[in-house]
Amino acid sequence: MLVVDKVSKQFKDKKQIVKAVDYLSLTIPEGHVVGLIGENGAGKTTLLRMLCTLIAPDEGKITLDGNDIYTHKEQVRKRMGVLFGSETGLYSRLTARENLEYFGSLYGMTSHEIKNQIEMLAKRFGMRKYLDRKVEGFSKGMMQKVAIARTLIHNPDIVLFDEPTTGLDITSSNIFREFILQFKKEGKTIIFSTHIMDEIAQLCDDVIMMHKGQMVYEGGLEELYEQENSRDLNYLFTSKIVRGDLYV
């Protein structure tokens, strides 16, 4: 279980101080698929970066199974797979296979484990035709597929995605969604941000709504629908912002 307790993070933008995350508290149960909704600048990416220990909060605490994640960074990172938007993390002069082999080795996987995992991911994402081509020159969609495969190479317990279907065609997006549902069956914890409300509605157990670094809603989708007497997530999010439904 991931617990975020009264966490804040601010950045200096020119001469201004911007509070990206403002006194945020939430709980992400093990094995849940959680959707993260908010406008650009709402603090979604900052929250995800703190969850995976890339940046530390200015205030507050984040724990995983009761342990402070910043005290146990290496153990936490081995349990997580992370993909941030267009930051693929891939080396353009290596082939797709070589990239996956490299990242697999960083996680201490054996050659046999890496080979089997690459074969499975290549098959599922339809990457076999270009698995042994250099990444430079790949289309955005091809690059995104390899980046997602890189995120999953070590079979993590917890996966964080920042707008993961950006650049993917319809078939690849559907394959990604199938992966999410499969992970859910396996008891993995998935947290992903998206502007595509249908993805939230189809895939998620819970939703986190953010606005200007603060919480608008945290909880189960069905509870939200029942509470607001609507299943239109676009309407519900906008309505909560207009009403000023912030958790403070």
Describe the protein.
This protein has helices at 44-51, 73-79, 96-106, 111-125, 140-152, 170-185, 197-203, 221-228, 233-243, and strands at residues 2-13, 16-28, 33-37, 59-64, 67-68, 80-84, 158-162, 189-193, 206-211, 214-220. With 248 residues, the chain is an alpha/beta fold. It has a single domain (2-90, 157-243), classed as P-loop containing nucleotide triphosphate hydrolases (Rossmann fold, 3-Layer(aba) Sandwich). This is ATP-binding cassette domain-containing protein. Keywords: ATP-binding, Nucleotide-binding, Transport. InterPro entries: AAA+_ATPase, ABC_transporter-like_ATP-bd, ABC_transporter-like_CS, ABC_transporter_ATP-binding, P-loop_NTPase.
Question: How far apart lie the N and C ends?
Answer: 22 Å
Q: Judging by the overall fold, what is the CATH architecture?
A: 3-Layer(aba) Sandwich
For the record, the CATH class is: Alpha Beta
Helix content: 25-40%
At the third CATH level, what is the topology name?
A: Rossmann fold
Side-by-side strand order of the widest sheet? 6-7-8-3-9-10
Family: Belongs to the ABC transporter superfamily.
InterPro entries: AAA+_ATPase (IPR003593), ABC_transporter-like_ATP-bd (IPR003439), ABC_transporter-like_CS (IPR017871), ABC_transporter_ATP-binding (IPR050763), P-loop_NTPase (IPR027417)
Protein name: ATP-binding cassette domain-containing protein
Organism: Lederbergia graminis
